[in-house]
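[SOLVED] Need 3D model of a three-part complex

Original post:
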Amino acid sequence: MSELQTELLEWYFANARVLPWRDREAGTRDPYRTWLSETLLQQTQISRGSVYYTAFLEVFPTVQDLADAPLEAVLKLWEGAGYYARARNLHAAARVIAQHGFPTTLEGWRALPGVGRYTAGAVLSLSRNAPLPVVDGNVRRVLARLLVEPDPTETWLWVQAEQLIDSSQPGAWNEAMIELGATVCMPRKPRCASCPINSHCAAFHAARVDQIPAPKPRVAVKQIHAVALLITDGARVYLEQRALTGLLGGLHGVPLEVVASTRDDALAALLERYGLAATGEWVGKVAHTMTHRQFQLEVYHLTSSTALPLESPQHVALSKLDAKVLALSKLEALF
DNA sequence: CAAGCGTGGCT
DNA sequence: TAGCCAAGCTT
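Solution:
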């Protein structure tokens, strides 16, 4: 073991945070729980992910429980967590695992929907001590600084992670790299003075830590104007299931029509699609921001006199966007 | 391979 | 406060 490896591992064993999925020593954990936590934590902060993790295990304590459940129940538990393809993929993969057992190889894990190189390496190293590297946002930052690489490519990152991994305890090593990036080698105001491997860090020596890695160019947020339909009978509301692929896939929501030319055109198109004669009453606006989209919705209300099936919104999975629209309905006991 | 995919915490 | 960012994956 190199000096760097010894020092980082010692630091990790002394400073690792207590987190719900760290119930056993890294390298010996339950693959189901490890996979679930890694999936939930994708692009999601610990404070939020851990709430969903605990609730999820409560309802689906084993992969068999998850496989046996209807997709609808899985999405309901995922409600509000975002990136809903994760929930659909998790459910589909659970059904494969229930049939064939947990994969034991990198390729086996990666063949499952929603499992990429990071998650496959994380699950196998953290649950089985497989000597596989991981590169997430934390590891990327640590490697970029350690080796002064302001704009690292994916290929470079995985090669470095592979060369640096401590093959005697890969699980602990991977978790240590992630932990360092999350608690010491942070994006802004890194705590270099208390970093266990600062003597090995080229960016620290060159006083360039604050420039590395270089910020990624951001895609402009797209403005989207749309019209939404709130069709209610006083207690229930018309909700349709969105397409599985694309925005808010698989979740239920109110009918939406993006404004291509004018708002009146969009509203007319919506009404025609559902065979509605009435024009509806304007009830308000909803603004909703996502990472890359800014929605402006004009919401129209109709009292149902149609054959459209109404349902109670508390029984289906909704996005925050639809929750805001439903809040305009002023109906009691919707949630 | 760049774009699409949610939501909330933090500064 | 408006933007940046968070244990990525898919197409």
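Edit: The longest strand of chain A covers residues 222-232.
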